[in-house]
Amino acid sequence: MTQNGTRDGLPDWQWLTVGEVARSLGLTEERVRQLIRARKIKASKIGGWLVRPADLHAFIQSRTNIPGEAP
After folding, report:
1. 21 and 56 in contact (C-beta within 8 Å)?
2. Into how many domains does the chain fold?
């Protein structure tokens, strides 16, 4: 962590690698890459694919059949 609240040039929030996303979803890294290529999971290619935690959460929410709030 540097004096500006960044780590390795990244802000305090953290990008997730394909491996981290795969482990959190119980998928293979190749399947996560397929989902990224199909634009199902938003990601940025900076060396390798990186996913914002908010984008991973949005993907999970888009795949759930449990409503956010009961009527």
Report:
1. yes
2. 1
